[in-house]
TrEMBL record:
Coiled coil: none
GO MF term set: metallocarboxypeptidase activity; zinc ion binding
Keywords per UniProt: Carboxypeptidase, Disulfide bond, Hydrolase, Metal-binding, Metalloprotease, Protease, Signal, Zinc
Biological process according to GO: proteolysis
Family label: Belongs to the peptidase M14 family.
Domain Peptidase M14 stretches: 125-419
Record PANTHER family: PROTEASE FAMILY M14 CARBOXYPEPTIDASE A,B (PTHR11705), RH39904P-RELATED (PTHR11705:SF156)
Protein's recorded name: Zinc carboxypeptidase A 1
CDD domains: M14_CP_A-B_like (cd03860)
Required cofactor names: Zn(2+)
Record-annotated active site: E382
Annotated signal peptide: 1-21
Assigned GO CC terms: extracellular space
Organism per entry: Musca domestica (House fly)
Length: 427
């Protein structure tokens, strides 16, 4: 979800990267933090989004008196400062060279095919797509009858959206669906999903063993494989799919679902990071994935989506401030889940309904699942770090993968138990 992040990619920069096959770089790109104090000032910022391919917003432009981070290419700095000054919009420089914040990423990523060489998948580093897929394939071999490799759909570039079904009881149980990595640059999301898979299979904690035994789990670490690969090969800050739209690429796969599509919190500009696509389910990723999820209707009763960052737990809706009919139950589960997240490391989560807690955002997967698949328990985790970590949000150190996984496992265990108490799971 995390848009928070209307990152309109610098097309000049990317054109060079795409043509040469080199990584996109952000040398001397400045990051400013600006605050609109009136609707008129907010409109000025909205007009900047998409107006220039060298001014990129890292936060949603939705609210006055709320900090909004902006990345500005070196040659565009004078124009940006002139606009800020002419409109008397408050701003401050928080980083003079964005590239310096991204330099250490490579040290925290397993080299390609490292799992194939070592057969030692772990959570001390971030893995590339193929290694995670090989690991899941191996799990199906190691746990016959318990782990089933499943394909949730296809991508524009022909990749499979692979996941695993975990059924430790080997009989049909109420289903829980977990989707992660729909936004490519949010690496901690798929890492947490794989941590969850491993815990469900190996943990000796009684509460974890219970939820592993009593439910069927459908877990997809990478709902946007093309985008994730692109963050490793070309542009670490990439968010969207890789479908070409004129001179721009990709739609936001979490604004493309066919419920209240493109109502609010999305863009019609194909260069925008919140581009909703030309139509609902225009992206093969969301279209095929939604078809797979629809095939599970009547089997899944809890839908969980992993994103980053901000330390929020969210529930429907994103398109309106109107609350779901069962908001009392959603809030009860929310309270228990956030409290459990806090116990191990003191990590503080806030949240609530998407529209009010974070920003307006229509066409999201959790809303679609809530309305179309009968999952009246539908939640989105915005994982570590907290919202004041603008420059490090997408590059959470690999040393934090395990702590993030541990506290999220605590939270999900409490969530499942509370959903069970409320009677939402059905055999």
């Amino acid at each position: 979800m995390a848009n928070k992040f209307n990152l309109v990619l610098g097309l000049c920069l990317l054109a060079v990267a795409l043509s040469s096959g080199e990584r996109a770089r952000y040398d001397n790109y400045r990051v400013y933090q600006t605050t609109a104090s009136s609707p008129a000032e907010l409109e000025v910022l909205k007009n900047l989004e998409g107006a220039s391919d060298s001014i990129m917003f890292l936060d949603g432009i939705h609210h006055i008196n709320k900090a909004i981070s902006v990345v500005v290419a070196p040659h565009k700095v004078p124009d940006f400062l002139e606009i800020m000054g002419a409109n008397e919009i408050e701003y401050g420089l928080i980083e003079s060279n964005l590239q310096s914040q991204l330099e250490d990423d490579e040290e925290q990523v397993a080299k390609p095919n490292s799992y194939a060489r070592s057969l030692n998948y772990n959570w001390n580093q971030y893995y590339q797509l193929d290694d995670t897929y090989r690991w899941m394939q191996q799990l199906a071999v190691e746990y016959p009858g318990v782990v089933t490799l499943i394909e949730g759909g296809k991508t524009y570039q022909g990749r499979s959206i692979l996941g695993v079904k975990i059924s430790k009881s080997r009989t049909t149980k109420p289903g829980i669906f977990v989707e992660a990595g729909i936004h490519a640059r949010e690496w901690i999301a798929p890492a947490t999903a794989t941590y969850l898979i491993n815990q469900l299979l190996t943990s000796n904690v009684v509460s974890v063993r219970n939820i592993a035994q009593n439910y069927d789990w459908y877990i997809f670490p990478h709902a946007n494989p093309d985008g994730y690969v692109y963050t490793h090969t070309t542009d670490r800050m990439w968010r969207k799919t890789r479908t070409p739209y004129g001179s721009c690429f990709g739609a936001d796969p979490n604004r493309n679902w066919g419920f209240q599509w493109n109502v609010v919190g999305s863009s019609n500009n194909a260069c925008s990071d919140t581009y909703a696509g030309p139509s609902a389910f225009s992206e093969i990723e969301t279209r095929s994935f939604s078809q797979y999820i629809s095939s599970l209707k009547g089997k899944i009763f809890l839908y969980i989506s992993f994103h980053a960052y901000s330390q929020y737990l969210l529930y429907p809706y994103g398109h309106t401030a109107s609350l779901p009919a069962n908001v009392k139950d959603l809030k009860q589960v929310f309270d228990v889940s956030v409290a459990a997240m806090n116990k191990r490391y003191g990590t503080k989560y806030t949240g609530g309904n998407i529209y009010d807690a974070i920003y307006p955002a229509s066409g999201a997967s959790v809303d679609w699942a809530y309305e179309n698949v009968g999952t009246k328990m539908s939640f989105c985790y915005e994982l570590r770090p907290s919202s004041n970590s603008v420059l490090t949000g997408f590059k959470l150190p690999a040393s934090q993968i395990i702590p993030t996984g541990e506290e999220t496992m605590d939270s999900i265990t409490a969530m499942v138990q509370e959903v069970q108490k409320l009677g939402y799971f059905k055999n």
